[in-house]
């Protein structure tokens, strides 16, 4: 009866003879390959060393790129094959037909560590793969995998230098469980980012492909990734099932896959096993400490983890209502596990961006700072809270040296965090350090070349350096690639404003309001356009100031924004009246004072110079 074939592992080969036939080599050759080169062969539990099996997909994966090398090796003298024969005879000893020949003393030696590793590695792999194989057929229980510790095990793995985790598919198809598939994706991105020398594409880059039917080679080429991680999530009552695969972008072949099944309460352990398996496939030489960093989830409380995923799902939507929901979820997660550092980090993120969506800076920034510091206290290895604290100290506390120290600490802890480099770049340009800002944003772009947010900040840096034509070219390309991305149009607003192409400013602000769906922004854009049509640029400025002043009667409206409108109109008295109020309110936008073209009409005024000094900016 023919062996059954599994789409994830291929055909099972149940003897040395079948393995040799599959590879087209002699049995003694494949035995030697297993001993010396890590051919993935498994032992049947309790069956003795000669009772073996292998999977065709694993053998084919191992063979990739090795054919010419192995052919050349087989062409060498018979000494290599003689060694394999000796190993085979050691497994099945036979009485010698004649006394063995004498061996020169210099050839009698102990096996070196590399030879021992070549024997030990397959045993370690077999144990790990047996656990993985059986986990698909019984309730999931997490067991840490042994890791090959010898550097020579690198030949077992053709680890890539860049990976993209595509949004996992929610097989239920209902929005109520989307947070789970998105959350698992985002967690994998974050966890795999801790694998040394591995570039992992950001959430911004990969989520553009959510729900889209695009082939692996096209996505991989666009993302600059050599391996794609994809998967599906099915939640059935109290049971969760996750299938995941690794695809080689070069030839569009699946190189590994597995299905994980367990109870919903096993989600944390299930995800730990999944990321451990994937990291094992991508890198074989992780130290124990590195492996723990990769698989760590930060909590063992399944309810807290689920609430955290819901918080991240809401946070990524970036509306006022969703950010408030995210804060609620993160707080609920903390109530379930008060030691959950990632939940505090999420809370810090949410409060930090809330002022951009209608929150109150004087309330939100202190809450963000407190949450970031608590996260760092609970887990000093977390990089993101340092970056958030850097943003907050820069924008709200005006502690520029302290902010820079936090950014540098974040980058030290996680040099591959593209967002930390991006945020640092944004702040450097506000300090009139444009060349340093460009270096940081270029580094962010190298790490995550397709992130629309990072591309938008390239435009910001160029605008801050007053290279308006270059900024417009970058922003136009961003719009072409992401026409419905609101801040792509915001990018053009400021570049066109600097170049004094006012009709384009009006148009881009109108488009931005349509795409972000914020009623206040839509109302503002309409008033701004009407003012421009009736009285030109000054009319638009006056309408903009009136709109923001009206906002302050029912909520928060930035006094810095109002001051910029009056300054560009040439009304110095009104401009400084609102700038002084912005200073008293610690308006986060004041750090843009030195680079915003809207203040060129008042830049030489002593009042302006004094305000710059009080904030701590250098002119």
For the termini, the CA-CA separation is: 82 Å
Averaged pLDDT: 80
**Can you say what the CATH homologous superfamily of the domain at 157-297 is?**
ABC-type transport auxiliary lipoprotein component
Which percent range fits the helix content? 55-70%
Largest pleated sheet: 6 strands, mixed
- Secondary structure: number of strands: 10
CATH architecture designation of the domain at 157-297: 3-Layer(aba) Sandwich
Strand content: 5-15%
Tell me the CATH topology of the domain at 157-297.
Rossmann fold
Low-confidence region ranges: 1-8, 75-159
According to CATH, what is the class of the domain at 157-297?
Answer: Alpha Beta
Report the total helices.
27
The helix-and-strand class reads alpha/beta
- What is the radius of gyration computed over CA atoms, rounded to a whole number of angstroms? 30 Å
**Broad shape:** elongated
Brief summary of the model shown:
The chain is α/β, with parallel strands linked by helices and 619 residues long. 58% of the residues lie in helices and 8% in strands. The protein has a domain at 157-297: Rossmann fold (3-Layer(aba) Sandwich).
